[in-house]
Amino acid sequence: MINKFIVENFLKPIAFIVLAMFIGGVLIFLTGKDPVLAIGSLLTGALGGKTQIAETLVKTVPLLICGLAVAMAYRSSFFNIGAEGQFLVGALASTWFAVSVQWPSIFMIPATFLVGAIAGGLLCGVVGLLKIKTGASEVINTLMFNYIAFRLVGYAVNGPLKEGYLPQTASIANTALLPIIWPGTRLHIGIVLAVILAIVLQFILFRTVFGYQIRAVGLSARAATYGGINASKRILQTTLLSGALAGLAGSIELMGVTGRLYEVFSPGYGFDAIAISLLARNNPAGVIVSALLFGILRGGAGQMQRVADVSMVIIYVIQALIIVFVVLSMDGKKGQKSIGNKIKGLWGKKWTPLKGGAVDE
Amino acid sequence: MKKEVVVSMRNISKEYPGVLANDRVNFDLAEGEIHGLLGENGAGKSTLMKILYGMEQPTEGDIYIRGIKTAIDTPKSALEQGIGMVHQHFMLIKNFSVAINVTLGMTDRLGYRLDERRAIHLLQEFYSEMTYFKVDPKGIIEELPVGIQQRVEILKILFRGAKILILDEPTAVLTPNETQELFDILKRFTKDGYSIIFISHKLDEIMELTDRVTVMRDGRVIGEVNTKETSKEELARMMVGREVIFRLPKTKQQQGAPVLSVDKLTVDTDWGRAVNKLSFSVHKGEILGIAGVDGNGQKELVEAIVGLRAKTSGVVMLQEQDITNTHPHQFNRECSYIPEDRQEEGLIMEYSIADNLILKNHNQEPFSKHYLLDKEIILNHANQLIEDYRIKTPNAQVMVKALSGGNQQKVVVSREMSKDPDLLIAVNPTRGIDVGSIEEIQVKLLKHRDEGKAILLVSTELEEILSLSDRIAVLYEGEFMGIVSPDTPVESIGLMMAGTRHRGEGEQDDQ
After folding, report:
1. Could you report the per-residue pLDDT of A168-206, keeping only the tens digit for each?
2. By Cβ atoms counted within 10 A, which residue in A6, A269, B20, B129 is the most buried?
3. How would you label B209-230 residue by residue, b for 16+ Cβ within 10 Å and e otherwise?
4. What is the bridge-based pairing of β-strands B471-476 and B287-291?
């Protein structure tokens, strides 16, 4: 069991990324650029020194927590593609709170977290409520709610929370800033919190009654209801949890990195989170690895563009390829083989010597 | 005069994971006949026809079209052979015109898509040959009544040159008048040389429309008869009876106090009234069997009792407690329910055996304490049940989707019976599983009854009802045709299943 756990959560994501980078390399070659230089500079840009490693980890924090948000929701069959919006409203609410009051850190930090989590949770919870009451598609609604969040942030930084000439808010209270854990870099305590969160959620999902129930609801709402589980209630609870996680990610980004809110606060962390969660097969522990891998791609992309003159867009190609690989390797619900396994089967046929002349087709 | 056989399916088998949907099936269709394919849901009719239409590939067996062995691997190649299928659920684009829907996907000689004008023209050309079967080519689908929409579906395949029509339960969505119109048209078709396969589980329709009937059960062909030479009763028996007869040793039981009492229970669905003012009770130490052809309200009745479906009116009492319109977990406390559909309802296919075995009581001690699951106890529990019920599996952590149908069912049965329920409701507990598992499960049910517990057995297998029940209630269109003893002749039970009310004496009714 341990072996399978490691293969599913760690080895498979890494293998998919390596394969995707290889194909990405071929594409770079076809455009006439040097793939070895490009991938090399991508890696040195992400991991080449103290600053680079710290920056990669800083980018991993929001990716990881948003990835957890998507993964938990998906476990109850709620496809949350609104992590981006929940991330933003979390950051917005935290900003509002942390420019308005100034308490000692020991109260200020948890309170700011809480405000962000509540804001994100409410945004997602509304969609959850709509889904269980009216059957409205959460895919459409979470996506639309992203635009509400974009505009809300735009309004806040140009209006009520604007400070100075630029469209941005004032700095948040000093006591709300997260401590740096690697002196001389921007790496803050958020990375530790994120990893702890992933482990705790992994435990909740697989070792508690609540986790058992939300997985049951996600796999078969009918069977879960038959088993006495209140499916609607569990879906609503998971959406609140999911939104709260994404909102918390926004708070942490604000309190650990930027210190203030501005219009393009997120470079799409909430969207990357969907791919991260998929790559981790919605396992919280696996999200640690896949978020880190995406952090490396994001961390090194700039260097690759500067040194090898390869557009950062190739990173998105690599991400898309990863998703394709994951989908290919998934088995169907009623025991149908995955496309990947079917391909494996074809390979097997080719290589097996013909037995007794009994060959069809 | 013997007519030419246009389709001949020989020794067709189709295996899905855990289910043998078709088992060495033979089927012949003669030119110009309407051939009924009769069987209950899950008997394998649709699978067989999907194989003929190229939507599924048989695991074994051959298809001969006009005597020539033919491989049909897609619906397109089926159409090339002149075989067309009309599905139960329409496949039409609702906001397009009839002409566009009929010609959808077709091109002219140069490979261009047909535009509306040309499509209408082609359709009118077609109508000049077929004078009695027309639908306005300009009509928009969503504005047409369901019966006409169905005609468009039929037009689609006629237009593509089909001479052999497969109709999958075409009357399910039609009103009685529309049904009659459809039947008239189908009879007219046969005069023009069309051959029709008519899939249904409605006996009246089969009797009225068809020339020959093939009856299927459990993936096998039970028999092929000429409609004129058979009766509704005989067909009902063929459809639900079992050939291999188990007469399990059964001791007389002292009937105890009622455990479940149902009073004037009525259930309405989107389709109409499914259960009509049913009253009955199940007592300690008895098995009450509910017989009937599938689709006569069994599913709705059970779901209403258990709490998975809202009741329209009536009262359900469990012991002394009123459980009308409560969440299933009320019912689950003291009682168990083996649902008809193990793959969708009874099991979570992607959960391990161990996790499935605690589905009903995962939130109770000893399986969980303070919201934490106790993995060790859960595994031990699973290993115990795997041994007691002889579930064939390498270990308790295998996902149930990897098990055979019989073993999946044993997982459900062992879970439901291991908590020693006061009342057990079992719906088709042995459907679609191997003979060995059937007997094991039936023995367990009898043992449970002998321990003084109540069982409500709902089964479409008449033989199973006869061999297990202490009393038999026959359900027809949501009403009981009578509650009789298992010694009642099979013929009269067959009559009741076909809708005749029981008038015999000694009726053990509850009222």
Report:
1. 999 999 999 999 999 999 999 999 999 999 999 999 999
2. A269
3. bbbbbbbbbbbbbbeebebeeb
4. parallel
Contact predicate A68/A198, CB 8 Å: yes
Look at the alpha carbons of A252, A256, A262, A266 in this order and tell me if their dihedral is positive or negative: negative
DSSP B191-240: HTT-EEEEEES-HHHHHHH-SEEEEEETTEEEEEEEGGG--HHHHHHHHH
**A111–chain B nearest CA distance, Å:** 27
**Optimal mutation site among B359, B399, B419, interface A, most CBs of chain A within 10 A:** B359
Reported residue count of chain A is 361
Residue with tokens 């043998």: B20
> Which of these, A76, A61, A15, A74, lies nearest to A282 by C-alpha position?
A74
* Vertex B428 angle, CA B300 and B248, to 5°: 140
Element (H, E) at B386: helix B375-388
B303, B362, B395, B403: best mutation site toward chain A, by most A Cβ within 10 Å?
B362
**Distance between CA atoms of B63 and B73, rounded to whole angstroms?**
11
Domains defined along chain B, listed by start = 5-240 (3.40.50.300), 258-497 (3.40.50.300)
Helices (H) and strands (E) in chain A, counts: 15, 0
Helices (H), A208-283: 209-219, 221-226, 231-253, 269-279
Confidence at residue A331, expressed as pLDDT on a 0 to 100 scale: 63
A226, A234, A334, best to mutate vs chain B, most B CBs in 10 Å = A226
Is B374 exposed, middle or buried, given 0-12, 13-18 or 19+ CB atoms closer than 10 A?
middle
Alpha carbon of B304: minimum distance to chain A alpha carbons (Å): 12
Task: Name which of A79, A263, A58, A74 is nearest A159 in CA terms.
Answer: A263
Least CA distance to A207: which residue of chain B? B373
Lowest mean pLDDT among A59-63, A249-253, B176-180: B176-180
Q: Is B89 exposed, middle or buried (0-12, 13-18, 19+ CB in 10 A)?
A: exposed
Of B17, B363, B397, the CB nearest to A335: B17
The amino acid at residue B298 is Q
Closest by CA to B199, choosing from B6, B29, B54, B66, is B29
Bond before B366 cis per omega within 30 degrees: yes
Confidence tier at B243 by pLDDT (50, 70, 90): very low
Q: How many CB atoms lie within 10 A of CB B404?
A: 17
Of B328, B337, B344, the CB nearest to A220: B344
Tell me the average pLDDT across A339-344: 56
Token pair listed for B346: 């009874």
Span B149-184, pLDDT tens digits: 899 999 999 888 899 999 988 887 777 778 888 999
Q: Do A335 and B18 touch (CB under 8 A)?
A: yes
Contact (CB<8Å) B329/A1: no
Query: If DSSP codes are grouped into helix, strand and coil, which group holds residue A93?
Result: helix
Is residue A1 less than 8 Å (CB to CB) from chain B?
yes
Q: Which of A246, A249, A255, A244 is nearest to A108 (CA)?
A: A255
Residues of chain A with Cβ-Cβ distance to B329 below 8 Å are 228-230
Share of chain A above pLDDT 90, in %: 68
Q: How far apart are CA A194 and CA A252, in angstroms?
A: 10
Query: Is residue B152 within 8 Å of B98, Cβ to Cβ?
Result: yes
Which long-range contacts link A331-339 to residues 24+ away (Cβ below 8 Å)?
A: A333/A219, A333/B349, A333/B350, A333/B401, A334/B16, A334/B17, A334/B343, A334/B349, A334/B401, A335/B17, A335/B18, A335/B349, A335/B401, A335/B402, A336/B17
**Phi, psi for residue B70 in degrees, rounded to 5:** -130, 135
> Which domains occur in chain A, in start order?
2-329 (1.10.3470)
- Residue of chain A whose alpha carbon sits nearest to that of B415: A227
Tell me: pLDDT of A347 over 80: no
